[in-house]
């Protein structure tokens, strides 16, 4: 992954330098962090720089561009075990230091529920006085058909560029309509995620107050809707890509986006609007540089850039960054899992690297199998019996792999960070075969991961036979009437990542108390001297 970072830097880094000089003009930079996912802790094996390095890089950019605004394109948390275990205590600290007070709504913003979104960390123990985070989103509606109270469709911010002149920045927010498939159903019951983006944007122009945005010198869309680089050019990565391609005209001058976990920098749509997206985990910071003629108070040029965040040692951290690092280290020592284990505890040892590349999603990885084995084993311990037990997982729940060497609780948490509740269901072989068939054809979100399973497929990739492979190696064919137990997290069983809830019938759910997903894996690894052979 570090090697990929180097290649991407070579491909996308333009160089941190102001736009070409021009009389009576200033550069106003909008910095954007996207898909940070609570990645506070540096991980050199995975190329994650950590929050202190992100903060220091931002500080350096702000020194180059003194007229600036810093925002987030969503998914500020979710996907980080450190964030989950510490209950997000440091996000207000980090965002306040980074100057982030505006954020697009991402799908992971709903991880803790809408009440938590509405509270906006007001009760967080380390929340700096006066800090708050305003969410921007125009296309998500509550059960009453209104934009939820914890969000607003657009905002206007001001950046002083001289003692007498101020540049106004208007930001309009959007969230991918497909985000509904990536959020626990109970978190968003009754909500609507509109995919008719152009109609949403057109409807905003009818609002009397929207004139405030139209009159801004800088106007941009801050969106948790992803893009990718294809043949060196940005392309939308959304099921409503045609809608996005129709966003044209002079109103919006740039796109600041997130969601698809790919570094993007360039121009998009027929009118070649600048677009930036900075991969994820703080690997890159997006910089949208607006050249503003201060006589006419008009934007005369826009340049997109993404800037890599290096992995820094303690010795090279600035005082502000080192202070944040000390807070992270303190929580690493003091925080324990729900199961009462310190997150720094060593569990086992990997004898070889066990990668899980989220970009290679059409396969069952060794780590994915290990995760599912832990689910099945947790059920066997809680409810011993004679039925076959198979653990299953949606591809997206496994966020990383293991590297050779000691494995700690924190390492496990970064592999499986969500601490989702686990459910078990007694199903027949016919329904299970349908689930496996779908899992091998989940083109959007990746293959289903599974344990204790061998599936035989034909040339077209369709499942023809399924075998259960018991822990002792004994293989048994699963026929239509074979009864078995499947164990999955509640996100998957409630329809997440495109899985039909009928694969997990409520009337067949078993009354068994199971540990949360991450604790299943912690317990499983703790009982093994080594893994990876």
Structural features, described:
Helix content is 24%, strand content 27%. Strand 1 (25-33), helix 2 and strand 2 (68-72) form a beta-alpha-beta unit. The protein has two domains: 2-14 and 28-326, Purple Acid Phosphatase, chain A, domain 2 (4-Layer Sandwich); 338-531, 5'-nucleotidase,  domain 2 (Alpha-Beta Complex), CATH 3.90.780.10. 47% of the residues are buried. It is of the alpha/beta class and 533 residues long.
CATH topology of the largest domain: Purple Acid Phosphatase, chain A, domain 2
Radius of gyration: 24 Å
What is the architecture of the largest domain at the second tier of CATH?
A: 4-Layer Sandwich
Question: Could you give a short account of the major beta sheet?
Answer: 7 strands, mixed
Report strand %. Answer: 25-35%
| CATH top level label of the largest domain | Alpha Beta
Structural class of the helices, strands and pairings? alpha/beta
**Total discrete domains:** 2
Helix content: 10-25%
Helices, by number, come to 14
At a glance:
With 533 residues, this protein is an alpha/beta fold. It is 24% helix and 27% strand.
Top keywords for this entry?
5'-nucleotidase,  domain 2, disordered N terminus, 27 strands, Purple Acid Phosphatase, chain A, domain 2, 14 helices, 533 residues, 6-stranded mixed β-sheet, 2 domains
Secondary structure elements and pairings:
Elements: H1 2-12, E1 25-33, H2 51-64, E2 68-72, H3 81-85, H4 91-98, E3 100-104, H5 114-119, E4 134-136, E5 140-141, E6 151-152, E7 154-160, E8 166-175, E9 192-193, H6 197-204, H7 211-214, E10 218-224, E11 227-230, E12 233-236, H8 241-245, E13 254-257, E14 263-268, E15 273-278, E16 284-293, E17 298-308, H9 319-334, E18 346-350, H10 366-382, E19 389-393, E20 405-408, H11 409-415, E21 422-428, H12 429-439, E22 449-450, E23 453-457, E24 463-469, E25 475-477, E26 483-489, H13 490-493, H14 517-526, E27 530-531
Helix pairs in contact: 2-9, 10-14
């Amino acid at each position: 992954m570090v090697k990929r970072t180097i290649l991407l830097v070579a491909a996308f880094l333009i160089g941190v330098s102001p736009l070409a000089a021009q009389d009576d003009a200033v550069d106003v930079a909008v910095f954007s962090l996207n898909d940070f996912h609570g990645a506070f802790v540096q991980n050199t094996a995975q190329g994650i720089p950590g929050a202190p390095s992100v903060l220091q890089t931002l500080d350096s950019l702000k020194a180059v561009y003194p007229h600036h605004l810093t925002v987030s394109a969503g998914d500020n948390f979710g996907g980080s075990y450190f964030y989950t275990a510490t209950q997000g205590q440091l996000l207000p600290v980090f965002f306040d230091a980074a100057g982030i007070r505006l954020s697009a709504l991402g799908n992971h913003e709903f991880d803790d529920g809408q009440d938590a979104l509405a509270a906006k960390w007001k009760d967080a123990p380390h929340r700096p006085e006066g800090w708050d985070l305003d969410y921007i989103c125009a296309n998500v509606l509550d059960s009453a058909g209104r934009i939820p109270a914890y969000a607003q469709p657009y905002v206007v911010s001001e950046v002083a560029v001289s003692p007498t002149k101020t540049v106004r920045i208007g930001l309009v927010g959007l969230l991918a309509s497909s985000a509904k498939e990536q959020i626990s159903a109970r978190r968003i019951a009754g909500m609507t995620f509109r995919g008719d983006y152009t109609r949403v944007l057109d409807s905003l122009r009818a609002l009397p107050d929207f004139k405030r945005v139209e009159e801004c010198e800088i106007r941009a869309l801050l969106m948790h809707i992803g893009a990718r680089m294809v043949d060196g050019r940005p392309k939308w990565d959304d099921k409503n890509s045609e809608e996005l391609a129709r966003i044209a005209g002079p109103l919006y001058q740039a796109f600041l986006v997130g969601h698809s976990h790919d570094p993007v920098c360039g121009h998009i749509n027929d009118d070649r609007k600048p677009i930036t997206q900075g991969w994820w985990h703080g690997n890159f910071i997006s910089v949208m540089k607006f050249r503003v003629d201060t006589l006419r108070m008009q934007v005369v040029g826009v340049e997109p850039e993404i800037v890599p965040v290096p992995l820094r040692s303690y010795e090279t951290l600035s005082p502000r960054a080192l202070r944040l690092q000390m807070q992270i280290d303190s929580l690493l020592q003091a925080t324990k899992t729900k199961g009462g284990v310190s997150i720094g505890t060593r569990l086992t040892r990997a004898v070889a690297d066990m990668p899980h590349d989220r970009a290679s999603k059409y396969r069952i990885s060794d780590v994915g199998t290990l995760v599912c084995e832990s689910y099945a084993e947790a059920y066997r311990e809680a409810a011993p019996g004679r039925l076959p037990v198979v653990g299953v997982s949606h591809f997206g729940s496994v966020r990383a792999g293991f590297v050779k060497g000691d494995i700690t609780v924190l390492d496990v948490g970064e592999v499986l960070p969500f601490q989702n509740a686990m459910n078990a269901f007694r199903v027949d072989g016919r329904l299970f075969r349908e689930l496996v068939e779908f899992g091998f054809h989940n083109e959007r979100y990746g293959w289903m991961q599974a344990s204790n399973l061998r599936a035989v497929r034909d040339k077209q990739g369709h499942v023809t036979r399924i075998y259960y492979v018991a822990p002792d190696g004994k293989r048994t064919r699963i026929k239509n009437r074979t009864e078995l137990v499947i164990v999955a997290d509640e996100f998957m069983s409630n329809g997440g990542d495109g899985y039909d809830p009928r694969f997990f019938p409520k009337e067949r759910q078993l009354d068994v108390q199971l540990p949360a997903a991450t604790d299943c894996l912690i317990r499983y690894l703790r009982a093994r001297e080594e893994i990876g052979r």
